[in-house]
């Protein structure tokens, strides 16, 4: 089967975008893995499918698959690229759209400067909803919140890390580190992703607080590995930093692929994420059966 695609990136987190507004492509997990493969396919961290509105009051459905072929609930950098795509392709009626995801409705909006702001909804702290199994663990109190001590096995050595746990529609564990460039992202990242206390696995964020309005962040993404940026990871890190008393309500997040700005007023307020969204190229690919 031959299909058309658009390659996009948001702060270096890269995507293959597929237009399924007129016809479902009915792709298998193996097809998504081929599209994401950097040697045998196009190369991407996630595959984003644009589908027609599934319900009154929303404009589109946004379906996300990780590079490993698994479907996931949310993708923040992808949401900005999704908005840029539907506007540039003339599929959207205005600059502000409502989009159904597996974890709820999000509202991206194109800004005059070309960046995109997304209302990502409120963070979720209910541990079973993340999901995170805290049975038998004692929380370590910080700010108005707490962190959890997890035992990890990394290169046959036992290590303990303190993580803040929350959902931005998808699960996140956030660790504070002194220097993000020296952080053991490729050692601790996969150990946290597959830790048995996270039954759906987890995205692991390594956050260095520069000052109350700026952090540096690297994220080991579930189903992908380290990416140049993770939008929901940036939201989760800033929310965690605010609740732990380290950050103010508006924070610039430096990632290896670019700058994101995250705003959160606390409580049930939605998290707002602003950042770039660009088309890289378009083409056709023959999918293996
Ligand atoms: N790149 C993303 C997150 C994509 C999904 C994530 N890997 C997961 O499995 O939850 C972002 O920008 O948020």
Automatic annotation (TrEMBL):
The family database entries (Gene3D superfamilies) matched by this protein are listed as: Diaminopimelate Epimerase, Chain A, domain 1
EC category name: isomerase
Query: Which residues does the Swiss-Prot or TrEMBL record annotate as the active site?
Result: 75, 230
Family note: Belongs to the diaminopimelate epimerase family.
Q: Which organism is it from?
A: Ramlibacter alkalitolerans
UniProt superkingdom: Bacteria
How is this protein named in the record?
A: Diaminopimelate epimerase
- What's a Pfam family this protein contains? DAP_epimerase
Where is the organism placed in the taxonomic lineage, from the top?
A: Bacteria, Pseudomonadati, Pseudomonadota, Betaproteobacteria, Burkholderiales
Marked site positions, Could be important to modulate the pK values of the two catalytic cysteine residues: 172, 221
